[in-house]
Specification:
About 30% of the residues lie in helices and about 20% in strands. Bound molecules: zinc ion. Zinc ion binds near residues 9, 22, 30 and 33.
């Protein structure tokens, strides 16, 4: 046997280390698949190598061998071809990757790969996990109408154009943790059996989650994580379906957001910055808004059961302090007021003031506490015209009656008229407050 030079490519694998050891390409240290292209794209060397790489690709594929770990290729195009398993970990593809319509019987690995063109896996059937974690894609990433994927791991991926998962079917979780999407992100009508993992995902374009269904298999789900997600474009979440608790903690909606038909499962927006975000016809009874910054938001078409927020329930279980609950009521009340929904805002104002009263009670500030009680039971904190009108009317009748029966009693006149003037002032205050809105 001749002492043949063998390809130096090796890397530490996930399951096993990979060593190429194939015959090297013309005086280089690497084989035809692992050798890099010459700089000059128009050179004869480039074209020659390109032809050889393509030949090798087809040769391997014909044997059913789709292991292209670390390969440097111009492009991969296996349109509608059955494949056992596909490994392009750490590969560098100068053009497009196209497996559209293919059936893949095992896993697909593109972890840490660099792809300069588009990636197309639309209409594929993949009976395994898909790993694109830490990959970098200059073009679009398309998995629309793909089926049977188990785990879809796209953690820390960078995609320069659109990401399309419309109508995709994923059995286990979908992971875009720490991903950076510079185009649009689309998950319209997608069905995900497991959890949504979008912690810290950054989406520069518009985001579409319309009618996406998560947790179809609730046994494998604990928590959907959209915490710290940054949405720079318009974002759409109408009729998304979740079956376990879902966090949007510290998320940022920087342009606009739409939520519609939120169901009974709890969503948490704790510490989120919501700009131009509307909650249309949602049941917000289990939605947490602690420390949220509402900026031009819409909440008025949604409802809270008995106007009670989950923070208040946490307070009753001694899990949250009165001040935080009062503050959360204030944030919701101010948002409702900004919308002009004064009736609803008024109801939240009463709740807010009651929580303030609790704060005074806890801090033993009794004078403020007594004042708040008078305002509460006298006027419903200025929200209840009925109370004060009733008090005003009754005291007026008593006063007139007393003056009539004791016309020369100066004490009755002095005390009665001063009390009456206080009630009149309160009545006018509440009345003016109501109609000036
Ligand atoms: Zn090699």
């Amino acid at each position: 046997m001749m002492n043949m030079k063998s390809c130096k490519y090796n890397c530490v694998g996930i399951e096993r280390d990979f060593e190429c050891g194939k015959e090297v390409w013309l005086g280089s240290d690497y084989c035809v698949l692992h050798v890099d292209f010459p700089r000059n794209k128009d050179s004869i060397e480039y074209k020659e190598l390109s032809v050889e790489k393509e030949k090798k690709l087809k040769e391997k594929a014909a044997k059913g061998d789709f292991n292209f770990e670390g390969a440097i290729l111009e492009g991969i195009d296996f349109y509608q071809q059955p494949i056992l398993m596909l490994n392009c970990r750490k590969a560098h593809i100068h053009g497009d990757v196209n497996f559209g319509g293919s059936v893949i019987y095992g896993e697909v690995r593109f972890s840490q790969s660099k792809i300069c063109g588009h990636v197309n896996f639309s209409w594929t059937t993949i009976n395994g996990d898909v790993y694109f974690n830490n990959a970098e894609i200059d073009g679009e990433l398309n998995f629309s109408y793909s089926k049977k994927i188990k785990i879809a791991d796209f953690g820390h991926i960078i995609v320069k154009k659109n990401v399309d998962f419309n109508h995709a079917e994923i059995g286990n979780y979908i992971n875009f943790i720490g991903a950076n999407i510079e185009g649009k992100f689309m998950l319209i009508d997608a069905r995900v059996g497991g959890e949504a993992k979008f912690d810290g995902t950054k989406i520069l374009g518009d985001a579409y989650f319309n009618r996406a269904k998560f947790n179809l298999n609730p046994d494998i789900c604990i928590y959907n994580n959209f915490n710290r997600i940054k949405l720079f474009g318009d974002s759409y979440f109408p009729d998304i379906e979740v079956k376990v608790e879902t966090g949007f903690v510290d998320s940022s909606f920087k342009s606009s957001g739409i939520f519609e038909g939120i169901n009974k499962y709890g969503l948490s927006f704790e510490g989120a910055r919501l700009k131009n975000t509307c909650f249309r016809n949602c049941d917000l009874s289990n939605v947490k808004f602690q420390n949220v910054i509402f900026e031009n938001c819409e909440l008025s078409t949604s409802k809270w059961e008995n106007n009670i927020i989950p923070e208040y329930r946490a307070y009753l279980k001694a899990r949250l302090d009165a001040r935080t609950v009062a503050d959360t009521y204030r944030r919701i009340r101010q948002s409702l007021q900004q919308e002009g929904a004064y009736d609803k805002a008024g109801k939240f104002y009463v709740k807010e003031m009651n929580m303030n009263k609790e704060v005074y009670r806890e801090e033993e500030k009794w004078i403020s506490w007594i004042l708040y009680n008078i305002l509460h039971y006298g006027t419903g904190y200025g929200e209840n015209l009925g109370y004060i009108f009733f008090i005003f009317l009754v005291s007026w009748i008593i006063y007139i009656a007393s003056v009539f029966s004791n016309p020369n009693n100066n004490l009755i006149i002095a005390v009665g008229s001063s009390l009456l003037s206080i009630f009149t002032a309160l009545f006018v205050y509440v009345f003016a407050r109501k109609i000036s809105r």
